Amino acid sequence: MDILYTLFKFLHVVAVIVWLGGVATLSLVHLRLLAGQDRRDLLPTLRLGLFLGRGVIGPAALLTLIAGIAMLANAGISFATLWVAWGFGGIALSIAFGATLIRRATEHLEQATTAGAPAIAPLQRRLVTYSFVNLALLLSAVWAMVAKPTL
Questions:
Q1: What is the C-alpha to C-alpha distance for residues 57 and 123, in angstroms, rounded to an integer?
Q2: pLDDT at 1
Q3: CA-to-CA distance for 132 and 138, rounded, in angstroms?
Q4: pLDDT of residue 26
Q5: How many CB atoms lie within 10 A of CB 92?
Q6: From CA 108, how far away is CA 117, in angstroms rounded?
Q7: Is 124 within 8 Å of 46 (Cβ atoms)?
Q8: What is the pTM of this model?
């Protein structure tokens, strides 16, 4: 097997593990915080989530995309193949979702918590919902990569 293909595949798989693991962990943390009544844990966790999104999850998503493109180009696999298009669609939607809706929901919840707003539960529920939708998108893309459905 071609050494470049193997290298790109390795980078792609490791990046997906980091990305999916980060999203899954943050989703469960957000769910746990929603169940709790203590706001003391909320603010540091939200700030950590923003840091992880920008510093770990986002770069892992970008590396997933770049390594996937390089791997396909090296192997001569068509980008029009259903499972490839599905994977890229899932990646693109997840990156867009994380960089916009999830980031904004986290920032709004952080601001409301800092200001001592009395009703933060709706903001927390929105963040949990967005987090689990993003997780579902990623799991869908992973399924497509493993099952490789065709038309």
A1: 22
A2: 62
A3: 10
A4: 92
A5: 14
A6: 11
A7: no
A8: 0.88
Rg for the chain, CA atoms, rounded: 17
pLDDT band at residue 62, thresholds of 50, 70 and 90?
A: very high
Give SS3 for 77: coil
For the purposes of burial, counting CB atoms within 10 Å of the CB of 62, is it exposed (0-12), middle (13-18) or buried (19 or more)? middle
Q: Is 116 left (phi over 0), alpha (psi -120 to 50) or beta?
A: left
Residue position matching structure tokens 């599905």: 86
Q: What is the pLDDT of residues 15-51, one digit of tens each?
A: 999 999 999 999 999 888 888 767 778 889 899 999 9
Distance CA 36, CA 76 (A): 50
Instruction: For the chain, give every domain's residue range.
Output: 3-147
**What does the pLDDT look like over 93-135, one tens digit per residue?**
999 999 999 999 999 999 998 888 888 989 999 999 999 999 9
Compute the distance between CA of residue 92 and CA of residue 150 in angstroms, rounded to an integer. 20
Nearest alpha-carbon partner for 72 in 89, 60, 88: 88
Q: Give me the half-sphere count of Cα atoms (radius 13 Å) on the Cβ side of residue 50.
A: 14
